[in-house]
Amino acid sequence: MEIIIAKHAGFCFGVKRATLLAFEKAADGVATSTLGPIIHSPQVVQRLEEKGVSVVNNLSQIEKGRVILRSHGVTATEMKEAHEKGLEVVDATCPFVRKAQSYVKLLSDEGYDVLVVGDRDHPEVEGIVSYAGREVVVVASVEEARSLRRMKRLGVVAQTTQSYETLEAVVEVCLAKVQELRVFNTICDATSVRQDEAKILAKQVECMIVIGGYNSANTRRLAEICLELRHNTHHVETVDQLSEEWFNNVKSVGITAGASTPKWLIDEVVERIKAFDRDKKD
Questions:
Q1: Could you say which of 62, 181, 197, 248 has the lowest number of CB atoms within 10 Å?
Q2: Mind listing the pLDDT tens digit for each residue in 63-84?
Q3: Rounded to whole angstroms, what are the CA distances from 170 to 130, 185, 186?
Q4: Any idea which fold 13-92 has?
Q5: Does domain 96-187 have CATH number 3.40.1010.20?
Q6: pLDDT in tens, 2-18
Q7: Which of 49, 88, 124, 180 is the catalytic position?
Q8: Is 126 one of the catalytic residues?
């Protein structure tokens, strides 16, 4: 059985940076917490907890010590509160997310109505929206964009893990609803590269395995993209979720992984698939 791993499967720049920061801080003995999971990988979060880095849902749970701000970013209010409490703040926000936050603030300050293309309940989007000085509209699809009211001046920003196709389609709808439209393409290159690779790979193989947290938006999108092209597509979080029957009569398997998936998880999946193949030959 041939196993093909996507070139850019696994950690992106922002996630790798945040993870390295967290493990580095975990080693110095200072009481450390992350505000929300550092990345959307329960396995990485668990390893950090084993090293003494706890996860808190809000700053009221921390009285002193150090707080690491997750790669998805936090709200402007949370950022202010962390500093006001006198905590040591380690900002692990992905630079691409921070750029989206700054663009929302810029558009708001210049008097634009602001639209964010993304998942309303995702922590990254909640953070991005908070940097505007006015109400922000969030849409996740073309259908939602069609219900928008007419506006004079509109600024558009995207969640960094959104698909370019969705952003483009929403912008096209907005063109017919506003007099002035300003768009910042804040989609991370790592996201689009992974999605393009997944499309190519899913057409080449007989089975696709997508590895990553079920709470990871970019991993779910990879799985959706692959499933559209290859019915035998499976999204798994860990090696134990693999089923041998998926690989019956399969000669080629493609593997990709979300931007929050560590290499060791990918390696475990590859080894298990190889073991399935060896068992069939014996």
A1: 248
A2: 899 999 999 999 999 999 999 9
A3: 21, 12, 14
A4: Rossmann fold (3.40.50)
A5: yes
A6: 999 999 999 999 999 99
A7: 124
A8: no
